[in-house]
Amino acid sequence: MDGSVKPGVLPGGPETARTRPGTEPGAAGTPKAVGIVWALLALNTLGSAGAKTIVPLPRSLIQMATMGALAAAFALALALNLRLRIRASAFVFLLTLLLVPSVISSANLDVGFGALFRCARLALFVGTLWLLSRWWDGSLTFVRHHIRMYFAVLGTAAAGLVISPGAAMPETYGGRLVGALWPLTPPQIGQYAAVIIGLTVLLVLGRRTTRGSAAVVIVPSLVLLALTHTRTATVGLLVGLVLAIGSLVLNSAAARRFFAWAVLVSAVAAVGFASALQAWFLRGQSKEYFTSLTGRAKVWDALLAAPRTTTEQVFGVGLGDKSFGGLPIDNSWLAVYHEQGLIGVTLVAAILIVLTGVALLRPPSLPRACAIFLISYVAISSYTEAGLGDASAYLLHLALAASLLAAPAAATSLATATPLTTPAVPQRRIPRWARR
Known about the structure:
Elements: H1 33-44, H2 59-80, H3 90-106, H4 114-132, H5 141-163, H6 165-168, H7 186-205, H8 211-228, H9 231-246, H10 253-272, H11 274-282, H12 287-291, H13 296-305, H14 310-315, E1 323-324, E2 327-328, H15 332-361, H16 366-381, H17 393-405, H18 432-435
Antiparallel strand pairs: 1-2
């Protein structure tokens, strides 16, 4: 952040070549195959439900691809870490505890055998994170893997828009951008675009990449985000960047300049384009429908009013498809309460509290700012999106934040160890006449 780092290239170019000692932990010992494992985890979280694609893809085929990606990620991570060396991580430990209410509630089979299948998927996901924790050292290595993977996913959405604009922006979704090659919903595309935009902006402010390389990622991602009309992703991006850049303001002149320009541009846009911004946010909906969160509040009220046994209140009804009465819940907290009970809600809250507390205790740095952005984005999105209780992109964002907040591993090699000193042997005194 002080200009001493040689910029790298995004999304697929070399990383920074040299850093000043103490400014950023290096990741020279991280195998390149770790990036493949991370990409496979991201592929698994894409899901199988979404818009109709140009070439119809059977849902069973998509599920085989996503589950195969998770199995391959676990196998490759295990091959890279055969000695099962892991690092202590409160985040992954709490995720492991989350498996307990998931298995207990799913064992009743109230929602079918699919609940046990989802438990096995979550267990593989958490197990892969344990294996990858060996390389969590607070460096930006996994940030670059994250950006590259989701930029590639956005590339499929952009390609579908070019090939078939009608299929990519169907009327069934109100003319919002969807995945025409891979079934992606508008909130998914908006989420991926917002996350990589925020991370890339922070890399530019920290001088970990060039402006030209960053523009290649930010400009098309902003266009795709605008075409999705995703309000949650937009608000999460803006609030997350404000908090992340605010953590750098006292230590980075670039962050102070960017913050000042952002405030100026926002003020001009709010005055000059107020009507256009309001129309974009309303998406043609009435204000009453907008205040009810596009009908979500009705589902939430019905879920909270439904009768439940004590067991269902404590452990939930089992992992399902995050729906109630055939309608999506679209709230992580209510989805966790419905499927994993009060224990699940407590564990998810503990995850966010622990990550936030660790981020606040860390000294100002670029990895800390990236972690703050991810935590705040996920916390905001959890109000209108589900996914914190199961293997999802939101948990992968939090896993990235946990890797950024991990302390660098202490050097244990013999070359860097302090050599042992042998006690000096007292010499016998020789009389003066004997010396002659």
